[in-house]
Amino acid sequence: MTDPLLEVRGLSRRFAAVDALKDVNFTVAAGEVHALIGPNGAGKTTFIHHLSGALFPDAGKIHFNGSEITRLRMHQRVRAGMARSWQITNVFLGLSALDNVALAVQGRPDAGTSFRFWRPVDREARLFEEARTFLEQVGLGERSGRLAGELSHGEQRALELAMALATRPQLLLLDEPMAGTGPEESARMVELIEHLARHVTILLVEHDMDAVFRLADRISVLVNGQLICTGTPDAVRNDAGVRRAYLGDHL
Amino acid sequence: MAFYRPARWQQTAALVVLAALLALPSLLDVLDQSYYIGFATRVLIFALAASSLNLVLGFGGMVSLGHAAFFGVGAYVAAICQQAGLGEGLLVLPLAMAVAGLFALAVGAVSLRTRGVYFIMITLAFAQMTYYLFVSASLWGGEDGLPVYERLRLGGISLAGDAALFFVVLGALTVTMLLFSRLAQARFGRTIQAIRENETRMEALGYPVLRYRLACFAIGGAVAGLAGALLANLSGLASPNLLQWTQSGTLLVMVIIGGVGYLWGGVVGAVVLLLLEEILLAWFAHWHIVLGLLLLAVVLFAPKGVAALFGRRDD
Amino acid sequence: MTQLFLEQALNGLQFGLMLFLLAAGLTLVFGIMDCINLAHGSLYMVGAYFVAAAAQAADSFWLGLGAGVAGTALLGLLLELSLFRQLYRRDHLAQVLATFALILIANESVRLIWGPAPLLLNPPESLAGPVEIAGFFYPAYRLVIIACGLVVAGLLYLLVAKSRIGMWVRAGAANREMTEALGINVRALFTAVFVFGAGLCALAGGLLGPLLAVQVGMGESVLILAFVVIIIGGIGSIRGALVGALIVGTVDTLGRALLPTLLRATLPADAAATLGPALASILIYLLMAGILFFKPQGLFPARA
Ligand SMILES: Nc1ncnc2c1ncn2[C@@H]1O[C@H](COP(=O)(O)OP(=O)(O)OP(=O)(O)O)[C@@H](O)[C@H]1O
Ligand SMILES: [Mg+2]
Question: ABC transporter domain spans which residues (chain A) (predicted)?
Answer without folding.
Answer: 6-249
